[in-house]
Structures are given as C-alpha cells and as structure tokens.
Amino acid sequence: MKLNTLAAAAAVLAGSIGVVSAADITGKVTLKGTPPPEPNLAQKTEAIKKDIFCGKVSEGPKNRVFVVGQNGELGQVVVKITEGLSGSAPAASEPVVLDQKGCEYLPYIAAVQVGQKLMVRNSDETLHNVHSIPKVAGNKESNKAQMAKSPDLSYTYENAEDFLAFKCDVHPWMFAYVSVVPHPFFAVTGNDGSFTIKNVPDGKYKVEAAHRKAGKSVKEVEVKGGNATVSFELELKAP
After folding, report:
1. Which of 8, 101, 102, 112 could form a disulfide with 116 if both were Cys (CB 3.0 to 4.6 A apart)?
2. Structural domain span for residue 178
3. Which of 84-88, 102-106, 218-222 has the weakest average pLDDT?
4. CATH number, residue 194
5. Are 67 and 73 in contact (CB under 8 A)?
6. Contact, 207 vs 4, CB < 8 A?
7. How many domains does the chain have?
8. Residue 221, helix vs strand vs coil
9. d(Cα 189, Cα 194) in Å, to the nearest integer?
10. Within the chain, what is the greatest distance between any pair of CA atoms?
C-alpha cells in the first residue's frame, strides 16, 4: 500500500474516534540465528531453465523466504497493531498491486486492509494462473488463468487472515503471500528491516511482527503526542 493512501485511511479512523493528534510508529525487525537455505532451490532452477519463456527472462530463483541483511535486518515481515484500537475506517480506495514479472510474484509479501482491492497483474509475455488459497472461512478461493498483458484481476477479502497464499499452477515455483488486516495500521518491512506505521492515534497498543517462517513477536508501545519507536528480534530455534 502506498504511504499516502495508508495515511489517508488512518486519518479517517483517527477522525472517527475524535483524536486530535496522531503520529508514526517506526522501528526495525532483526533475525537471531542462521536461516536455513531456500527450499528446493536446485529443482526450481531446473524447472525455470526448461520453461520456454521463463528460462529467458527469469533471473533464477532467489532467497525469498528469508531476506536478511548483514546485521540480521529482516525483510518481508508484516507489522501491525493487534490491540488498543477503537472505531473503524473504510478500506483505502487505492488498490495494492501484486505483479507477475520475470516469472515471479512481486512483492513476495504484501498486506491489504479488509475490503481493500488487491489487483493481480501479469506483466509477462506468457500465460500465468492465479490461484489464491485462503484458509480463513469466508475468504473465497479463486483459480483463474491470466493471459499475457491482460487486464488486472481484482480481489477483495472480508476477513482478516495472515499470509493468504497466491500461486501459479503453470509455474509451480511462483508464490506470494498477502496478509489481510482489519484496519489501516500496518506495514511490511523493507530489505533493511525497517517499517513505518503512519498516523496512529494517541494510545497504548500491542504491536505484532510476523514472519512466515521465523514466527511472531508482540510488544507494547504508547503513542503520546509524538512519534513512537519499537523494534523486534525474531529468533530461529535450532531444529
């Protein structure tokens, strides 16, 4: 979600509960421990090479599950407020875009608000298949072919869900995950592990950082008349 759209939605919620000030929650997520290698990397590489189109345009499979910097900075973590909010906000009007480009989903991890449009795009010159696989009741599964450069496919979800899976059945190495959040106060960490949750009303909150494989961490933070900072360390347990 673009920051200006997220900020606008957050401002609506702040206004709906009579808040006169709002600020940002910023921070960083780091990983403790050595991440395992990307699963099935050799098989993915071979499958991509054999594909007539993808073998020409793909840079090959990447480490997408664990994006970790030199000092443990952890990307692709969904950070959101889980407790302390009141009131409600309409879904942001600007959609989030999930693109199929170079025979991979971009971004690998995304987040949308309940009721907000998620547009799935095919920027490749080949057929893809968009197969969404929700696990929460009420979020409908969908399985649609998408021709090269055809119109975007539109999705909305009415129930919160962590890491709703999207895959391409034509190219089985292609996956993405979208978290559906019931309010606009969330962010996804960049490759440097940093995040910003915009326009949070004054109050005491619980904030959660969640990674698909490294688990979750929850911390308390208070926003009071100015920006607040909170950081997380997710730890990989020894197998």
Report:
1. 112
2. 3-235
3. 84-88
4. 2.60.40.420
5. no
6. no
7. 1
8. strand
9. 5
10. 59
pLDDT at 2: 47
* Edge-to-edge order in the sheet of strand 78-83: 186-188, 78-83, 203-211, 215-223
Count how many Cα atoms sit within 13 Å of the Cα of residue 50 in the half-sphere of its side chain: 10
Contacts of 16 (CB under 8 A, 6+ apart): 87, 88, 89
Helix (H) or strand (E) holding 81: strand 78-83
| Token duo for residue 22 | 């709002």
23 - beta bridge partners? 200
Burial class (CB in 10 A: 0-12, 13-18, 19+), 142: middle
CA pair distance 70, 88, nearest whole angstrom: 40
Check if the beta carbon of residue 174 is closer than 8 Å to that of residue 146: no
- Taking residues 140-168, report their average pLDDT: 97
User: Which pairing describes strands 96-100 and 161-167: parallel, antiparallel, or unpaired?
Assistant: unpaired
**pLDDT digits over 125-150, tens only?**
999 999 999 999 999 999 999 999 89
DSSP 136-165: STTSPPEEEEE-TTPPPEEE--SS-EEEEE
pLDDT averaged over the chain?
Answer: 91
Which candidate, 30, 25, 29, places its Cα nearest to that of 7? 25
The reported pTM is 0.89
Among residues 156, 164, 98, which one has the least CA distance to residue 128?
98
* pLDDT value at 1 more than 50: no
Count of Cβ atoms closer than 10 Å to residue 225 Cβ? 8
Instruction: Give the CA angle between residues 73, 77, 81 to the nearest 5°.
Output: 120
